[in-house]
């Protein structure tokens, strides 16, 4: 009872409408206390006169500059008292009355806080000035001078010109400007407006402020300008200061945010649940958002009507496997899959960096897009090579809102702000940089290398960047740093063996000119490309070839190789008619620019014209096809030059006939013919087994015509068969199909199959598509030997097709799939979601979710 009576007595002391009012009067700055004493003496001097002053009191608070308080019942009494006082001339015409409820605050005595409580790294807020209510961190305390040095985010007006540019600035606009927004110190922006920046040790100095290299402002403030009690920084404020939020009470931080901001986080289509009230934990989907009111459709059997809630009564709800986008906070703009759901927090697996991110559920939104990996400025993206400092470079391995994580060339991850990162592309383009590996092989960007030494020994990766002997590699098997890692060139070897090994045909040429390169054709081991055979140090294979210069001062020029060694080549340029010496590594062959290498001693003389004049016409009235009617023998050494032989080829004994590739026919002579120059026996080698004559039209597209040399000891001699799928050839008919492979002669069917006709992905019961000719949505096959048995729904037949003519059908959501590549090959499951090039599969064996590339999956055929 005594406590209640004390409270009542204290309430009686507060002013009410019957008490005199308090008026603010503008005073000369710095003369507040002297003016109050002057009014007191004036009141005493006039109290016994006919018209004494009617004011009750005068107050000049310590913290208020330029004003005094006068207590009086009427405003006329205040004017009578201040009349004739020069210090109050500014406030003679205007006085403002203080509201009754605010009058006690004028005379409230503020208890000075204990200075011993101040510690370094402590969070405070500012009370006044341009930084009012801004969060700051104590950097240094000067007890003797009653000051603290604070670290805070600056507020600089980047729209106001400085220096020589300020003459063009409209002063009237300057008055209308509001408080500048918070932004880290931007050196380039300051220089763009004419500002001058100096250095003081590790700090930058601009307009009296000291700024760190990371963009923070360090400034001295008096103790009475900061607030220490009850400081609760929000999560977004801590992210700006690079502080990790692990030690914070997430629930407290979430509640401290503005409720109006929360309402903006909801969007139609979001899955939400009720966070408080009688319907707590009720789930639903947002229909509309109007201000702070959110309308949702509940997911409940008995609730069929939309319900309306306030924004703070709802929270977002997510399930494992959802694909979401971060719409606010430190990782804004990033996307990923949710792997774990915690109270108020969600752990997602980033699409780009393959890191686990812990984000508030209110900062997420469902989406189907994948982040582009480009920063907010649009200048950088994931995997870019940037300049860390004057001596080192690095690769961006994570993009965040205000800064990057960069993997330096020394293997360390560094945190760099966007404002201080320079793009290394301005210095040098590393896409064409070349280095030597441990076995002296040339390696460059996009090469696959294997690490043989160091912490990453045994790993394989693709070269993304090359800089001063430090290749930056990317491997999908490594999760750290988005799969990026850096090694030294002497610790890696080129995958697949040495590039310097010259691959040549194993046959012994029967021509007297031993150095003659073999016939250049698909599957044959000729002298095409940069790997032609030569005698001594001279490389004859490249001579006469049309090439393009890809590096150096003549970059982009096209010319013909006149002479070449193992390292350099003499090229006659088309444009300038001059001959230059170019490094072989700076040349690349142009399409159709291969040298003619089949012009030695007649290699194809006295052939029976397999595809020439003796053939019954296959294409209407074209008899003979390919000018073959009178050419017997076909390509003899003494014929008149014709066709498109290269005039630049110094190795030509006579100008050869150009191979005539017409529709689906093979060239004459066939490009798969034996390399030994002997008379050939005509043959028709069919890659399909004899199953039905109804497939004549369809199968003819995949017909492979092969001519074999008769005297070759390892040649393939087909036996004529009375069956044939197409128009009969004269002479020679169909052949009995034999198992393909194991025929070592270059250009034979066996060598063709060895080059990858059947690959690893083929598996039974999956839906495939026949390339180029026939698309079928329900073709399931069995594999065996070099062919695949495929059932075609359209013709209700099973046919045999070479594996290289098939490709798997990409599955869609909810399809039954089989893994056709990788460690989980032959396992089955259900595709429940698709994320760009990846799919989420629920495996049949253990019911676990796995993320696999779509190209690793094949659609299982329905029953």
Automatic annotation (TrEMBL):
One of its GO terms (molecular function) is mRNA binding. Residues 596-610, 619-633, 677-687 have a biased composition (Polar residues). Residues 117-144, 265-292, 317-344, 442-469, 543-567, 810-837 form the KOW domain. Residues 19-110 form the NusG-like N-terminal domain. Residues 501-537, 585-687, 712-747 are annotated as: Disordered. Residues 605-722 form the Spt5 C-terminal domain. It is found in: Nucleus. One of its GO terms (cellular component) is DSIF complex. One of its GO terms (biological process) is transcription elongation by RNA polymerase II. Its main location: nucleus. Residues 521-531 have a biased composition (Gly residues). SUPFAM superfamilies: Translation proteins SH3-like domain. Gene3D superfamilies: 2.30.30.30, NusG, N-terminal domain (3.30.70.940). Keywords: Activator, Nucleus, Phosphoprotein, Repeat, Repressor, Transcription, Transcription regulation. PANTHER family: SUPPRESSOR OF TY 5, TRANSCRIPTION ELONGATION FACTOR SPT5. Belongs to the SPT5 family. This is Transcription elongation factor SPT5.
């Amino acid at each position: 009872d005594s406590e209640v009576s004390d409270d009542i007595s204290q309430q009686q002391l507060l002013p009410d409408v019957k008490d005199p009012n308090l008026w603010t009067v503008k005073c000369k700055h710095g003369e507040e206390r002297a003016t109050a004493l002057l009014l007191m003496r004036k009141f005493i001097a006039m109290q016994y006169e006919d018209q004494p002053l009617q004011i009750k009191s005068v107050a000049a608070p310590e913290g208020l500059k330029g004003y005094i308080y006068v207590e009086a019942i009427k405003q006329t009494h205040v004017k009578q008292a201040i009349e004739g006082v020069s210090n109050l001339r500014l406030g003679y015409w205007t006085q403002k009355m203080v509201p009754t409820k605010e009058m006690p605050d004028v005379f409230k005595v503020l208890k000075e806080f204990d200075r011993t409580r101040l510690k370094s790294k402590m969070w405070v807020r500012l009370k006044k000035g341009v930084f009012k209510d801004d969060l700051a961190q104590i950097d240094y305390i000067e007890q003797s001078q009653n000051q603290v040095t604070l670290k805070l985010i600056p507020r600089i007006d980047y729209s106001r010109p400085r220096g020589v540019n300020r003459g063009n600035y409209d002063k009237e606009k300057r008055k209308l400007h509001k408080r500048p927004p918070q932004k880290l110190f931007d050196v380039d922006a300051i220089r763009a407006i004419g500002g001058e920046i100096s250095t003081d040790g590790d700090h930058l100095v601009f307009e009296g402020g000291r700024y760190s290299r990371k963009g923070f402002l360090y400034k001295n403030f008096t103790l009475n300008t900061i607030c220490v009690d009850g400081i609760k920084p929000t999560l977004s404020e801590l992210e700006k200061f690079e502080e990790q939020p692990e030690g914070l009470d997430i629930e407290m931080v979430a509640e401290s945010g503005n409720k109006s901001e929360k309402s903006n986080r909801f969007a139609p289509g979001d899955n939400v649940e009720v966070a408080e009230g009688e319907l707590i934990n009720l789930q639903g989907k947002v229909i509309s958002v109007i201000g702070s009111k959110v309308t949702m459709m509940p997911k409940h059997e008995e609730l069929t009507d939309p319900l309306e809630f306030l924004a703070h009564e709802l929270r977002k709800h997510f399930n494992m496997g959802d694909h979401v986008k971060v719409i606010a906070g430190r990782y804004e703009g990033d996307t990923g899959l949710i792997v774990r759901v915690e109270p108020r927090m969600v752990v997602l697996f980033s699409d780009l960096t393959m890191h686990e991110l812990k984000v508030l559920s209110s900062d997420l939104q469902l989406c189907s897009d994948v982040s582009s990996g480009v920063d907010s400025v649009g200048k950088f993206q994931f995997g870019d090579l940037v300049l860390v400092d004057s001596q080192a470079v690095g690769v961006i391995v994570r993009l965040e809102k205000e800064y990057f994580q960069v993997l330096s060339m020394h293997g360390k991850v560094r945190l760099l702000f966007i404002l201080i990162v320079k793009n290394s592309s301005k210095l040098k383009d590393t896409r064409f940089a070349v280095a030597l590996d441990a076995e002296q092989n040339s390696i460059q960007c996009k090469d696959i290398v294997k690490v043989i030494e160091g912490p990453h020994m045994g790993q394989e990766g693709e070269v993304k960047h090359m800089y001063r002997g430090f290749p930056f590699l990317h491997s999908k098997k490594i999760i750290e740093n988005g799969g990026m890692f850096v090694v030294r060139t002497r610790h890696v070897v080129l995958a697949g063996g040495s590039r310097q090994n010259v691959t040549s045909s194993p046959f012994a040429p029967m021509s007297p000119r031993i150095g003659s390169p073999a016939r250049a054709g698909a599957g044959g081991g000729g002298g095409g490309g940069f790997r032609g055979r030569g005698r001594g140090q001279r490389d004859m294979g490249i001579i006469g070839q049309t090439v393009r210069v890809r590096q150096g001062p003549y970059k982009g020029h096209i010319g013909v190789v006149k002479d070449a060694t193992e390292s350099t080549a003499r090229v006659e340029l088309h444009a300038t008619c001059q001959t230059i010496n170019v490094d072989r590594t700076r040349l690349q062959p142009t399409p159709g620019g291969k040298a003619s290498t089949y012009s030695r001693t007649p290699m194809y003389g006295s052939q029976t014209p397999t595809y020439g004049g003796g053939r019954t016409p296959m294409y209407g009235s074209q008899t003979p096809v390919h000018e073959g009617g009178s050419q017997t023998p076909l390509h003899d050494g003494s014929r008149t030059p014709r066709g498109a032989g290269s005039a630049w080829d110094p190795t030509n004994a006579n100008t050869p006939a150009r191979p005539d590739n017409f529709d689906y026919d093979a060239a004459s002579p066939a490009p798969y013919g034996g390399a030994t120059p002997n008379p050939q026996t005509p043959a028709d080698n069919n890659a399909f087994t004899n199953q039905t004559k109804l497939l004549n039209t369809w199968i003819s597209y995949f017909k492979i015509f092969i001519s074999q040399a008769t005297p070759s000891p390892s040649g393939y001699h087909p036996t004529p068969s009375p069956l044939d799928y197409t128009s009969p050839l004269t002479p020679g008919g169909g052949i009995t199909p034999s198992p393909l492979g194991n025929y070592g002669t270059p250009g034979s069917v066996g060598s063709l199959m060895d080059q990858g006709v059947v690959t690893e992905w083929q598996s039974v019961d999956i839906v495939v598509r026949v390339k180029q000719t026939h698309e079928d949505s329900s073709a399931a096959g069995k594999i065996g030997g070099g062919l695949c048995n495929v059932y075609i729904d359209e013709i209700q037949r099973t046919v045999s097709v070479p594996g290289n003519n098939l490709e798997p059908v990409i599955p869609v959501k909810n399809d039954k799939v089989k893994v056709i590549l990788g460690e989980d090959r032959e396992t089955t499951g259900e595709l429940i979601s698709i994320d760009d090039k990846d799919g989420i599969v629920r495996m049949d064996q253990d019911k676990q979710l796995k993320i696999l590339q779509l190209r690793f999956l094949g659609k299982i055929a329905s029953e």
